[in-house]
Design brief:
Layout (H helix, E strand, L loop, with lengths): L1 H5 L5 H8 L2 E5 L6 H8 L5 E8 L6 E9 L2 H10 L7 E2 L7 H12 L34 E6 L5 H8 L5 E8 L6 E7 L2 H11 L11 E5 L8
Antiparallel strand pairs: 1-3, 1-4, 2-3, 5-7, 5-8, 6-7
Helix pairs in contact: 4-7
Length: about 220
Amino acid sequence: VFIAQSRASGSHRDVEDEELTRIFVMIPKSYTEEDLREKFKMYGDIEYCSIIKNKTTGESKGLGYVRYLKPSQAARAIEECDRSFRAILAEPKNKSSESFEHDYYSNNTRQEPRGNTLPFCMQPEFCSFEKNECRIQESVSKRLSVVSRLPFIQEQLFALFDLVPGLEYCDVQRDPYTNSGYAVIQYSTAASAIYAKYKLHGFEYPPGNRLTVIFLEDGSDSSE
């Protein structure tokens, strides 16, 4: 019932379209849309692929979108695809693509020069990008921290997060000096944790009390 109430402001499918089913990837500039589809079709049913091109020359910018039919498929692609693709969830369509591309390049193309090659951010094509106001990409893990103004009831919080498959444990911790709630949630896969965070961060439970859900380090390689 709570989840249904939280979706009352818009279509469930619309939310998934914008936040959970599209991924943004870095690809070789020689890739066609068919190449992109071939690389990512193993993770789920693809609705469409698109390659971002220079509006003037029509050449590929080396970036693309892949949209899946289900959020779990997009999460699996992010988790399992080759790290060279630097896959992340795409920003909602209401954010300008130029702004998102700028943030993505700022966060994902910083590397040490090797031989005569330069990092993307030092090549002439990208020199116009502002280097401040960069969005820092959040590290993903299988463990989540949940914070609330109100104390949690173990059974109720477990039941809420158990709606996402793969819940391994829910540990509610109580602070004797405050009335706030704090819990640690762990899933069997990062894909489940990603889905739970995007669905339940900002979720009102109980109504009027918003949950804050963030990733916690779980000892795995943070780059993955």
